[in-house]
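[[Local backbone shapes]]
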Amino acid sequence: MDNIWLLHPEQYSSLENESRKYILYPKLIEYINQSGDLKLLDFGCGDGSFIKLLDKKLEIALYDISSKALVQAKSNLKEYNVKIYYELEDIPNDNFD
């Protein structure tokens, strides 16, 4: 059985009471803001909702196993400078903080 985030990423991203939004995201944002200029890879980016919480000036790359999610992320992050990796093997080693 496939997971909801693979088959229906738009439904998964709309879940309101999900712990990542209340526990994980605030801690990550705090760390990123304190760390200055970073090169970030959002591995498993989904629809890009986490990236929308960050400064648009950051250098950000995205990867997700779901091509549907990557299409959504690309659409949602038009105002951001993001590089999208569609294949896992295309992600460079030692390029991100």
About this structure: The radius of gyration is 13 Å. The CA atoms of residues 52 and 77 lie 7 Å apart.
